[in-house]
Write a structure and sequence with these properties.
- By secondary structure, the chain is mostly helical.
- The protein has two domains: 46 residues, no CATH class; 40 residues, no CATH class.
- It contains four helices and no strands.
- It is globular, with a radius of gyration of 16 Å.
- Belongs to the GILT family.
- It is found in: Secreted.
- Keywords: Glycoprotein, Secreted, Signal.
- One of its GO terms (molecular function) is oxidoreductase activity, acting on a sulfur group of donors, disulfide as acceptor.
Amino acid sequence: MQLISIVFQCLGQVNKSNNSDKIKRCASGEQGDAFLASYGDKTDLVQRPLSFVPTIIINEKFDQAIQDQAVNDLRGVVCRVAVNKPAIC
């Protein structure tokens, strides 16, 4: 799953080109490593080590009660806490 996020960030770096070779090089190269490291740093700020995957963070804060609810009803949690509610709410 992390690779997918890295690929999307790399896609932005290659100006949304449809050239999959550029994206693969970005994801597997230094830029991809940097993106992955930055996610690792963000993870460490939340909880080290993570006790559960996925760990769901809302508004850059971990809350066990929200985590428990979100595992079973992520849409409901998002709709309840989002300031700008998505259309699905």
